[in-house]
């Protein structure tokens, strides 16, 4: 397995900070904007964005939640064994709000479609924007594009993007994994 590091260390932190400044440009004070991290991996990213925005704006009033999409996925019945969902931690209504959906990697768009369906249980937002750390272009199954992108990666379906979070794996890092090509 070949590895190529896309983001790590200081560059990882700078990317998050840049994305936060882009959010501030578009949402100013966040009075009508909420952050929603898509479980499982988007929650780490959402927590980081929330923390950074709170520090930059010197406020504790930015609303943030975590959204589980397990039973909204179109493939959840295809998995072997019992499917277990995580709990949602959204203690506010999103009716009429600007929602920033946050996930670590955008690949086919199916996760985002599921999240949009799951969001409706909390009200009808005025607008939904998408923020991703990594955008795997050219792999979409659905016409979904992010509004805020940490880094775009052009890769084939056989390659895998792995995001490691300090909170879970002990380091902040994004790597592109590829099978070595075998030429005969």
TrEMBL record:
The keyword Glycosyltransferase applies. Residues 5-157 form the Phosphoribosyltransferase domain. CDD domains: PRTases_typeI. InterPro entries: PRTase-like (IPR029057), PRTase_dom (IPR000836), PyrR_bifunctional (IPR050137). Keywords: Glycosyltransferase, Transferase. It holds the Pfam family Pribosyltran. Its EC number is 2.4.2.9. GO terms for molecular function: uracil phosphoribosyltransferase activity. This is Bifunctional pyr operon transcriptional regulator/uracil phosphoribosyltransferase PyrR. It comes from Pedobacter polaris.
């Amino acid at each position: 397995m070949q590895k190529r590091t896309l983001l790590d260390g200081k560059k990882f932190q700078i990317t998050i900070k840049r994305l936060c400044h882009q959010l501030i440009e578009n949402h100013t004070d966040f009075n009508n904007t909420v952050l929603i991290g898509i479980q499982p991996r988007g929650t780490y990213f959402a927590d980081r964005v929330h923390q950074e925005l709170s520090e930059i704006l010197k406020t504790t009033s930015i609303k943030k939640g975590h959204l589980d999409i397990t039973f909204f996925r179109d493939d959840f019945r295809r998995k072997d064994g019992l499917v277990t969902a995580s709990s949602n931690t959204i203690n506010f209504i999103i009716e009429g709000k600007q929602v920033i959906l946050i996930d670590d990697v955008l690949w086919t768009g199916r996760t985002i479609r599921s999240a949009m369906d799951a969001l409706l249980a909390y009200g009808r937002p005025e607008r939904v924007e998408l923020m991703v750390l990594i955008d795997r272009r050219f792999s979409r199954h659905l016409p979904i594009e992010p509004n805020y992108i940490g880094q775009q990666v052009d890769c084939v379906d056989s390659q895998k993007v792995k995001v490691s979070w300090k909170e879970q794996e002990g380091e902040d890092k994004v790597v592109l994994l590829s099978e070595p090509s075998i030429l005969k």
